[in-house]
Structures are given as C-alpha cells and as structure tokens.
Amino acid sequence: MEEMKKEAMQEESRQTGSKPEESKAYVERKRWLFFGLPFTFTKYTVTDEVITVNDGLLNTRENDCYLYKVQDVELQISLGERIFGLGTVACYTGDNTHPQLYLTHIKHAKEIKNYILKASEEARRRRRTLNTLNIDAADIDEIDD
Q: I want to staple 67 with a disulfide (CB 3.0 to 4.6 A). Which of 4, 40, 123, 128 is the partner?
C-alpha cells in the first residue's frame, strides 16, 4: 500500500517537474495515564507549519500555534508516563492564547519534541524571524560610564 503511494508521488513529480515535499505530520491523542489508553477527546497535530490542539466532544475547541513562535521545548516524563511509554512535551511560545502549550500524555514524545525543535528553527529561518529576550539592557549604559 505504501509502495503504491510512493510510486504515485514519483509519477506526479515526473509529470509536474517538481520534487515531492518531505512534509511530516504527527497526530497523537492525549491518553489516560492509566494503561496509556486513548479515551480522551483531545487530539494534537504537529506539522511543519503549525501545532493544532483539538479538544472536546460536544463543545469543541481548536487552538493553533505557529511553529515559528515556539521558543523552547521541554520533555517531561513522570514515573507513571515512563511505565506506559508516554510523555509530555511542553512548548514555551510567544503565542498570546497559550504561552505554555502542553502536549500531555502522548506516545513518541521524544521524537515529537525533537521534531518541534528542528521545525521551529526552520520555520523561523523561512520567515526571517528573530527571537529575542529582554535582558534588562538599560543596565548596560550604567556599566559603560
């Protein structure tokens, strides 16, 4: 099945004269910590442009955060998560709605964390965006005197 998809993409790229894009997308569900079962209504989607969080059953909410806004990523694994092969990825962003975005109790957490780090840096390069921090530069003038 996957071979057929690969052949179809190669055929399409030959016809259009373009290279197929190496775009990755991770789709994970928030899981219960107990046995790591995916019986929650929260779904995380990480692409090369955006992180999307969908949650809720009757009242649903969708939240997006562009990857170029991600400043730092942290992997948190508790003992219970380690037992069931789960992890929590904490993204510290410049986003207004979620300055700290947590992808909680997901499988493949380390792989997703590494992907977010690389993809966020690449997204900043594509947009020519610079991340800066306020380090109290006013104190520098006093030191020079």
A: 123
Q: Is there a domain that residue 81 lies in?
A: yes
Report CA-CA distances (Å) from 99 to 51, 87, 91, 94, 110. Answer: 13, 20, 8, 6, 21
Quote the number of domains for the chain: 1
In a domain, 115, yes or no: yes
Enter the pTM of the model.
0.71
Residue range 41-64: average pLDDT? Answer: 93
Place of tokens 């909410």: 61
Alpha carbons 70 and 55: distance in angstroms, whole number: 21
Measured CA to CA, the distance from residue 53 to residue 28 in angstroms comes to 10
Burial 43-53 (b: 16+ CB within 10 A, else e): ebebebeebbb
Which of 110, 112, 115, 67 lies closest to 92 in space, CA to CA?
Answer: 67
For residues 62 and 56, what is the distance between their CA atoms, to the nearest angstrom?
A: 9
* 119, part of any domain: yes
